[in-house]
Amino acid sequence: MNTEVGTMNEQSTSPFFSKIPPELRHLVYDECLFVGEVAAYKKSTTSNAPHPQLSLLCTCRRLKLEAEPVLYRNTVILRKEEDIQSFFQKTIPTPARKFLPKSIEVSLGRDDFTTLDSCMVYNHGITQSRGLLASSGSINEYNREIHRFAKLKLRDATWQRKVDPILDHLRLDRLVLDLSDSFCPEDCDCRMAAMAILCFEKGFAFQTPKIVEIKGWELDDLDIAAVVGECLGTWTVRRAGKVAGDADSALGTISEAEKWLLDMASEEEERSCS
């Protein structure tokens, strides 16, 4: 989905602009560029998924400026950490371009755990092994500590690396969170959906998304998307208060939605491997 190109001719006398009214031109843009969902990079999507005709944007600068907002009405799928890094560094590198995406879908799953993250857990295990085994003499106590540390590492480092650019730079209307694989990286069945949501506790720098959708986490008699949306709003207001130096706004009060989420995350953190 990289649409960065070199300097292009304005072509202000082109018949496409002088003879075709804007309403019809936008029908062309919709037909060529709006497909609903697009992966940031082709390697992240399936071969039969529709692709926007990006070559249209390379015809002239005026067309690119006029049509590109249509492209970013699509929901941009961001699955891998390297895709997020490339998307921000290559496709939307400037502050103005970072405001182009209006809808994104990001997944937070156990597969995000990198080899480096695993090595850090292993090193933590070596450091902790002597003390835990000496004090309790129990291998179970040692395993519980490794399990706890791996979950915190996944939330506070691995997932946070994916979430921070979204919080700091985008002005979204719609956010879709795929939590289908938000489980412990130790390949157990420990759910980490609430812990994944807490990665957004920093709050958005610009605005709370108007629409929040959750995939892969459903609870009976509870609208998860509404709960998460309320928490995102609270965290964003709190972040704005910190920036403005408003102590009361920055501190805020814990809403029922936030309290429920924090309790769920605490239960997930303390849950041991089965």
Topology:
Blueprint: H1 15-18, H2 22-33, E1 37-39, H3 61-71, E2 75-78, H4 81-91, E3 103-107, H5 115-136, H6 139-169, E4 174-178, H7 193-197, E5 211-215, H8 224-244, H9 247-251, H10 256-270
Parallel strand pairs: 1-2, 2-3, 3-4, 4-5
Give a written overview of the molecule:
Helix content is 50%, strand content 8%. The protein is α/β, with parallel strands linked by helices and 274 residues long. Helix 2 packs across helix 3. The chain starts with 14 loop residues before the first helix and ends with a helix.
Q: What is the helical fraction, as a range of percent? A: 40-55%
Briefly note the structural class of the backbone: alpha/beta
Number of strands: 5
Radius of gyration: 22 Å
Largest sheet: 5 strands, parallel
Multimeric organization: single chain
Strand order of the largest sheet: 1-2-3-4-5
Mean pLDDT level: 86
Q: Termini, distance in Å?
A: 42 Å
Features:
alpha/beta; F-box protein; about 270 residues; 5-stranded parallel sheet
In short:
This protein is of the alpha/beta class and 274 residues long.
